[in-house]
Model the fold of this input.
Amino acid sequence: MVEIKSFEELKSAAKAEAVAAVAVAPVVREPQRDKFGRAYATGRRKDATAKVWIKPGAGKITVNGRDIEEYFTRPVLRMISNQPFAVTNRVGQFDVTVSVSGGGLSGQAGAVRHGLSRCLDNYEPELHSALKHAGFLTRDPRVVERKKYGKAKARRSFQFSKR
Done:
């Protein structure tokens, strides 16, 4: 025989089942790729913005139409730009095209790293935890402080003269 329950009991039972189903089922994200098999993401750091596209290939990295060794001449900047590949063990597996603007070379390298990390996350969602643990998916919020009136720079005062 079917037991008739009150509306409140049914509502609480349905809510408990929904919570249990959500707790058990892991969130699986789908890869975000265009019709050419590329993934896209935007990275930012200081005043620099990088638009990054990746696709499977031989590991060629192009920044603003030039090779990465030609654009980022300092090895430290190249290392910063390639860190997401090192963390995820994907060195030489993707061709990368980057369009970067604004800021200086250091900010641009950080923007490329951020954009490349987000791009890898879009291409292979399984890499999310490794990139997040390394801190590459978080946008660095530090920017240059603005200059205030009555000051020589943002905080530096003019030289004080007693006489």
